Amino acid sequence: MKPINILILDDKEENIISLHALLQDVEHVNIISSTDPNEALKICWKDDISIALVDVQMPEINGFEFVSLLKSNPKTSHIMAIMVTAISKEDKYLLKGLESGAVDYLYKPLNPEITIAKVKSFVQQILIQQELKLKNKELEESRIELLKTKEEAVQARKSKEIFLANMSHEIRTPINGIMGIMHMFKSSELTAEQRDWLKRLDNASQSLLLIINDILDLSKIDSGMLKIEFEDFSLTKMIEDIDRIFKIKANHKHLDFSIVADEKIPQFIRYDSLRLQQIISNFISNSLKFTEKGKIELRVQVQEQKNQNYRLRFTVADTGIGIKEDSVDKIFMAFEQADDGITKKFGGTGLGLAIVKRLANLLNGNIGASSVYGEGSEFHFEGWFEASNHKIEDSSKDVPTYNSFPKFDNLKVLVAEDNELNSFMLAHMLRSWNCEVDIVKNGQLAVEKVEQQHFDLILMDTHMPIMSGFEAIKEIKNHRIPEKHGISIITISASVLEHEQAAAFRAGADGVIGKPFDPIELYQKIIAVTTKNKNMNMTP
Length: 540
Prior knowledge:
By secondary structure, the protein is an alpha/beta fold. 49% of the residues lie in helices and 21% in strands.
């Protein structure tokens, strides 16, 4: 804390010496003196004076006038002025001093105790004010730093979203082409060996898609954008599906896979089926990765029942490599493995269990793990589930190939897509549905084609060079020829971020479909948007 400057102004040197002697032991003060009021004013202006002890009776400028001058100047108006006087204690003199701006009086002959006490009191006030100013300054600096940190966090989140959107587009676009070509092969005559190759390629594509979905899910959860959607579904059917899927995968590694389900579990429940299956599948996939021999078992147990509510526990136990005791907690952290050598030997992103932990929190459930290093591990998810009486029809049927769908009536379609594999695959599907297809590589060429020809439907990629799909849609929907406004437009986007899909509708798109897409989904979407626009155009 810097010392407080006190000015003593008195035209008699002996009075200054006397006051200086009284105050020299007061802590945190620096005493400056003057016998000349004009010189004292200059001192006040340049030396940051906090307290002025001013003699009332002085030649040229008296004490009242001096204090008035201090208070009239913004640079010195903060100074606490104490009048030091030998004249009468009558009220009129006291009022005159207070009216000039003084805060107190000291009467000659000075009482040492009173003088020291009063000065100490004002010094303490100033010290408190200085402390408050310092704290306020620190608070303001902290506020500015917090605002800066918040802004940096917002910018970091935006940068992360842009990066994820770009990465999603760059990865999903080629996956869409690969999976589209696989659909084309599935519609062809293949040998048993070729179908096996196709199955392996399909598994590899699904694994790649799972990785990008894990990254996006983790980002959505961390930013609070992931939505939990409850629905009625068959828990027993889900367990059967899990059994069928993972038995095949376990057989490939010569592992036994079994499910032990409590007879008391409800057949139908109301829950987020997608996220429940994601949690269980992540546990089993993790066990499959780290188990070389033995077995993997999924146990579904009723822990507690209250009327229609069941506390269920899903446990996956394996005979894999196990986890060291000091590393168990680490496995639920993003991008972490229990052992740094694990990634090199077994691969993986280290995201699966991190996503499971976050999903469990969103679902108000809990997860845990236990392990014996070298012998195996157990992972469990536990939560409350509401039993449902709603009967869900089994919709599992053989999925038809896309070239067996009913044909369209000479639908004229423009495909705007800069990826040649995707445009080739789309054109092949559309032509199998009796569509006349034209292809362009960017939004600008799409606008020019619409200017020259009639189209019933446009399939528009959102990210293209020269002119994006969003810009092209706006141009077409605001075309100078009103008839062009009614062209049905479906955006095909590799981004699964909700705000980008919403942007497509704001631009004027009639439908949105994500990459990679299922041919059935595309076919149904085409029917929906063309039928809707046809009915709107027929409305008088």
